[in-house]
Specification:
371 residues; alpha+beta; Aminopeptidase; twelve-stranded mixed beta sheet; two-stranded antiparallel ribbon; 9 helices; 14 strands; 30% strand; globular
Length: 371
């Protein structure tokens, strides 16, 4: 059996970040037939963002582990600066403000020619070790799948909505003691959008919402007068969005946290926001689209939320159509927008379908509660 060992990298190691980005590209092309990894700069910024989370990067390198030497915060030897051959990459996050029981957003990626050598199993074992070192008791890992996979066996989501094919990624997750906790749908809207359809949908939604509500839109940092409203909307997103059986706790948001989030996004692109306010000025809903800088082919529909007591007025559709119109006017070069929704979020998926989004891939959210 080939020998390998695990090391942990820091976000300031340029070659390590390059490998993280390269593996994201390789796996994306393998599964989807296209590069969905986004820009190298976005990968770098995501890895260095320590305002609300601790980021982990674990690499599998050929050969035996070096003897002695210092270890990092996750108990592994430090990665060398010279990284010419990497067999696998695992990234993960430890939330620092909320959900302190989680190791979240774990992605285990192994090079195709180095699979079935125990690399993935070793990386998952280290996720458990990292959880123990940092007092976490739950690991959430994600997998990507083609929606039209030619398989005869599927694994159903526990809440009865959505399923993933029993392909190698699914079999690996199950073999490591994970349970499918949620299915997520990636949808894509090809651009240019049908402007007549967009205008008709927007007018229909506006007629249902007015005169009790109004919209305000902007790009870039949130205006000071809307910071509290956006904080309330972001809290609602974390509290109300369907999570399947993922053990997720609501996040606490305030104006300062909104400003931190705006600063992070501004480092790699432009965010477009539309906020719904009631006639009394109460926050009623929010939607965001993000366009990466330097990668004009990558545009993302981020979160959309309508706060509970304001539902039933077509605000979701009005928010999304209004914001999309602003984005396509500012970025006519965008070929498509991608978005991700819980498969059980039927209301938001229906809005997406009405706007022209179509299923592009499916994701599995896998959870393991540690003894």
């Amino acid at each position: 059996m080939s020998t390998f060992h695990l090391v942990e990298a820091n976000a300031d190691q340029e070659k390590a970040i390059g490998w993280v980005h390269r593996f994201s590209q390789l796996i994306s092309i393998e599964i989807h037939g296209e590069d969905q990894a986004g820009s190298l700069e976005s990968t770098r910024l995501a890895s260095t963002d320590a305002s609300t989370r601790l980021n982990g990067i674990v690499l599998a390198l050929p050969g035996p582990a070096p003897a002695g030497g210092p270890v990092g915060r996750f108990g592994l030897p430090h990665a060398p600066e010279d990284l010419d051959d990497v067999w696998g990459v695992t990234t993960f996050q430890l939330p620092l403000k909320d959900n302190l029981h989680l190791i979240d957003n774990a992605f285990v990626q192994v090079r195709a020619d180095r699979r079935r050598l125990g690399v993935g199993t070793a990386m998952v074992s280290h996720l458990r070790r990292a959880a123990e070192l940092h007092g976490r008791n739950t690991v959430v890992m994600w997998s990507d799948h083609r929606p039209g996979a030619e398989v005869s066996d599927w694994v159903d989501a526990p809440q009865g909505t959505g399923r993933v094919p029993r392909d190698p990624a699914t079999r690996f997750a199950l073999s490591q003691g994970f349970q499918l906790a949620q299915v997520e749908r990636q949808s894509r809207l090809f651009l240019p959008v049908d402007l007549e359809l967009l205008a008709a949908l927007s007018a229909e939604a506006r007629a249902a919402a007015e005169p009790g509500y109004r919209l305000v839109s902007w790009s870039g940092p949130t205006p000071t007068e809307y910071l509290d409203a956006v904080a309330a909307a972001n809290h609602a997103i974390s509290a109300d969005a369907p999570n399947g059986e993922i053990d997720w706790e609501p996040e606490q948001w305030d104006a300062a946290r909104v400003q931190e989030a705006d600063e992070r996004l501004a480092r790699s692109g432009t965010a477009f926001h539309t906020l719904a306010l009631s006639d009394s000025g109460e926050p009623a809903g929010l939607t965001t689209i993000f366009v990466e800088r330097g990668e004009p082919n990558h545009g993302y529909q981020f979160n959309t939320v309508v706060l509970g007591r304001h539902r039933g007025h077509r605000l979701g559709l009005w928010l999304k159509t209004t914001n999309l119109a602003a984005v396509v006017a500012a970025h006519p070069e965008l070929p498509h927008l991608d978005t991700w929704n819980a498969d059980e979020n039927g209301y938001m998926l229906a809005i997406n379908v009405a706007m022209g989004f179509r299923v592009w891939s499916i994701g599995g959210g896998w959870q393991r509660v540690l003894a």
